[in-house]
Amino acid sequence: MKLYVTPGSPYARMARIVVIEKGLESRVGIIAAQTRRANSPYYDINPSGRVPYLVRDDGVGLEESAVICAYLDHLDGNPAFKLPAGEPGWAARRLEALARSMLDGLAVWSREILRPLSERSPTVVQHEADRSRRMADLWESEIDHPLMHGALSMVQVTLACALGLEARVPEFRWRPGHPKLCHWFDRIAARPSFAATAPPGA
Ligand SMILES: N[C@@H](CCC(=O)N[C@@H](CS)C(=O)NCC(=O)O)C(=O)O
Fold first, then answer.
1. What is the pLDDT of residue 111?
2. pLDDT at position 9, please?
3. pLDDT for position 162
4. Number of structural domains, the chain?
5. What is the pLDDT of residues 83-130, one digit of tens each?
6. Residue closest by Cα to atom 17 of ligand 1
7. 13 domain residue, yes or no
8. Is the pLDDT of residue 201 over 90?
9. Do 168 and 109 sit in the same domain of this protein?
């Protein structure tokens, strides 16, 4: 299989982490895609131009980090990241949605600051900076939830990939005032799968 990524994409990082956590390195080749470029040859492979993108052994392509992570997790018939049934499943979905919401905002912010200054919107930057502050405050209390401390889950992967964007967005300073989140992040960031996929600048 081929997994198309860019080194700085937090969504692609989630898929790369699952590849390592599931021991799939010999089955999944990691390929750097040229995104956000006019006429990139990558558009012939994935017309949306986004990463991550997984081309399965049968040639079928999959988009969306959540879909790709679930597919990779189920390959061995023994999914490690499957949502639990009942109330714990809803608790996990709720937390995962909060983590993804934070990540989506940070992805907008990181894209905005890559634009030339003349094209950058201070309004968008301010909006996302404010959102990220509120979400860091929220996570400082939610981080006590047992699901954030049990076996590695997609909630944990998503939140860690969001917080890891501190390497790409210098103004995203979530650490001051959030000691529990710092402790949680530093522990998860030390896992080999996270260390091996850290974004450039980390
Ligand atoms: N919802 C998608 C988001 C993927 C996404 O936005 N990827 C960005 C990189 S972080 C991308 O490929 N951007 C290229 C483009 O917009 O052309 C997912 O979870 O996979």
1. 96
2. 98
3. 98
4. 2
5. 989 999 999 999 999 999 999 999 999 999 999 999 999 999 999 999
6. 36
7. yes
8. no
9. yes
Kindly report the backbone phi and psi dihedral angles of residue 29, in degrees, each rounded to the nearest multiple of 5, phi listed first: -80, 135
Segments forming the whole domain that contains residue 48: 2-74
Nearest to 156 by CA among 146, 166, 169: 146
pLDDT at 202: 72
Q: In angstroms, what is the span from residue 188 Cα to ligand 1's centroid?
A: 23
Residue 196 domain-assigned (yes or no): no
Closest CA to 75 of 94, 62, 84: 62
Residue owning the nearest CA to atom 13 of ligand 1: 50
For atom 10 of ligand 1, the residue with the nearest CA is: 9
Domain end residue (candidates: 74, 101, 119): 74
- DSSP per-residue string spanning the chain: -EEEE-TT-HHHHHHHHHHHHTT-TTT-EEEE---SSTT-THHHH-TT--S-EEE-TTS-EEESHHHHHHHHHHTTS--SSPPPSHHHHHHHHHHHHHHHHHHHHHHHHHHHTTS-GGG--HHHHHHHHHHHHHHHHHHHHHTTSGGGTSS--HHHHHHHHHHGGGGT-TT----TT-HHHHHHHHHHHTSHHHHTTPPTT-
Is the beta carbon of 35 within 6 A of some atom in ligand 1?
yes
Q: Are residues 65 and 96 in the same domain?
A: no
Please tell me the predicted confidence (pLDDT) of residue 118.
97
